[in-house]
Amino acid sequence: MKILSGIQPSGRLHIGNYFGAMKQHLQLQDANDGFYFIAEYHALTSNPEPDTLRDYVFAVAADYLALGLNPEKTVFWRQTDVPEVVELMWLLSCVTPVGLMERCVSYKDKLAKGLSANHGLFTYPLLQAADILAFESDLVPVGADQKQHIEVTCDIAQKFNHLYGETFKIPKEYIIDSVAVVPGIDGQKMSKSYDNTIEIFEPEKKMRKKVMKIKTDSAGVDEPKNPDTCSVFALLKLFASEDELKEWDKKYREGGMGYGDAKKRLAELMLEFFKPYREKREELDKDPAYIEKVLKGGAERARAAAGETLARARHNIGIR
Ligand code: TYM
């Protein structure tokens, strides 16, 4: 199967990115054909500083490689190195009703907050559809926030196929319920744009500090607590063994445990979990030439794949 997914270089990758998406990307790469890319064009919709954008692209690449992305097997590239996708987006845009874009949440939310959206944000889901369709993806592993974008992709692909004949494969989302929305330190969805993230490769001290800041209710040590509504417990679920989790569940419900204890243990577990990858991450930091080589090699393979789909779409729509 072809597995495709993208991550925006709009900040350092965090635990929500890891459990909601990257973990699945890495697990699926061995038995399938993985296509993973750094979505720079999507990140431009928030107008980052040029140097910041370059730094984040590098960091996303280094994070992925440190965590185990295998560039020998998996195709890994920068979105901006594959212009075929942008051309495909134009062909798709000509069969896309404006109303479909208007219903998409990231654009709607921005307007609801009284902010003015740029046109890139408006067409953001269309570029994502081009990403997905260009590579004939079977499965798109993402967090819950991307569900609508995949539905839109299927709508547009079906419309195009209906108008111009079988051109695109219809993809499926792959969302794991238990990790679909990882909470951040303020209890909202962990997100670079809410400034509530815990980064995967956060320096140790900072990681502990952030964990201690996770928002909880004000139940005292002796009082019983509800694990089902607690962000600390939700994060413990990602890192603790089943037996340990059962113990925490009991301690929460019985009382006699302070949130501080649960947080300290959570920080330990997080640091332990990512520790085996830290050394590799530090090595990669010193080897930008290797990272560049991987991304360039990936782009060549990605261009070849996207080129075939684009040629078919051009032909079917009536271009020479
Ligand atoms: P982005 O960069 O916002 O996030 C990357 C991936 O991480 C997931 N994610 C989360 N999952 C669970 N809990 C969270 N708190 C959390 N925060 C982020 C996201 O769901 C995503 O899977 N539009 C995409 C990038 C993209 C793309 C694509 C994805 C561009 N083209 C084609 C798939 C296919 C985005 O903004 O992801």
Automatic annotation (TrEMBL):
InterPro entries: aa-tRNA-synth_I_CS, aa-tRNA-synth_Ic, Rossmann-like_a/b/a_fold, Trp-tRNA-ligase, Trp-tRNA-ligase_bac-type, Trp-tRNA_synthetase
One GO molecular-function entry: ATP binding
Alphabetized UniProt keyword annotations: Aminoacyl-tRNA synthetase, ATP-binding, Cytoplasm, Ligase, Nucleotide-binding, Protein biosynthesis
Chain span(s) of sequence motif 'HIGH' region: 9-17
Residue sites binding ATP per the record: 8-10, 16-17, 143-145, 182, 189-193
Highest taxon of the lineage: Bacteria
Gene3D superfamilies: HUPs, Tyrosyl-Transfer RNA Synthetase
BP term (GO), one: tryptophanyl-tRNA aminoacylation
Main localization (coarse): cytoplasm
GO CC annotation: cytosol
Motif ('KMSKS' region): 189-193
The EC number(s) this enzyme carries: 6.1.1.2
Binding-site residues, L-tryptophan: 131
CDD domains: TrpRS_core
Location(s) in or outside the cell: Cytoplasm
Catalytic activity, reaction form: tRNA(Trp) + L-tryptophan + ATP = L-tryptophyl-tRNA(Trp) + AMP + diphosphate + H(+)
Keyword Nucleotide-binding: yes
Pfam families: tRNA-synt_1b
Task of the protein: Catalyzes the attachment of tryptophan to tRNA(Trp).
Subunit structure of this chain's protein: Homodimer.
Family named by the database record: Belongs to the class-I aminoacyl-tRNA synthetase family.
Descriptive protein name: Tryptophan--tRNA ligase
Higher taxonomy: Bacteria, Pseudomonadati, Planctomycetota, Phycisphaerae, Sedimentisphaerales
